[in-house]
Each structure stands twice: as structure tokens, then as C-alpha cells.
Design brief:
This protein is mainly alpha-helical and 123 residues long. The chain is 54% helix and 10% strand. The chain has a domain at 75-123. The chain has a two-stranded antiparallel sheet with strand order 1-2. The radius of gyration is 36 Å and the shape is rod-shaped.
Amino acid sequence: MTVYGLCLASAQAQELDTRRDDAKPPPLSLRLSDEVISKAVRETLAESKGGPKPGKALSGDAYQQFEKGFSDAEKPGCLGPNALKFQPSGTVVKTPFGAFNVGIGGILALPFWAAAVVRGKCN
């Protein structure tokens, strides 16, 4: 049985060798075209399990962090809703029991808004 398997394997190998000799591959410029490359990419993606996995390299996380930092550092408009972004509208009140941060809003925050305008903390 083993001898028969070895003979069969050698016959198949010889047949493959003759097929390779007979078939001359086309030149490389004809084999690599945009259609062939896109087909190969589609087949590879179809074979992979779960598709491409998003990670830090593909997410653009560093760019998003840079954009967020850049927009956070931008001066707000003086008439906008966040005009007191870089000028705190509160004060610290020191008492015998400790220091307390008192936030001031509404019409009472107008002096802080004026201070932001004078100091150039808003546009």
C-alpha cells in the first residue's frame, strides 16, 4: 500500500512539472493591473475573519486629541456663551471654618466679564 502511494505521488509530481513547463506565465506588466490588485485585496479581506480591526493606528486618535486641544485653547468670543472660559467667575471666601469657592453667575458675573474683556481673555 505504501509503495502504491509513493508511485502515485511521484506520478503526480511529474505531471505537475510538465504542466509548469508547458504554461509560460505572462509578463509581469500584464499580471499586475489595478483590477488584479483590487480583486486580490477583496479576496484577502473576505478570507480574513471579522474584517479589519480598528486600532490606534487607524483611528486617528492623535489627530483627534490635537484638534480637541487646539479648539480648547482657542479664545472664545466676548459675547458668546463661554466668554468667561479663561476668566473665572467666582471667588474664594476665607472663613474661620476654611476656604470656600463661591461661583457667581448671571448678572452678578458682569464685573468678571468686564475683567475678561480688559485682560484680553476673550475676543
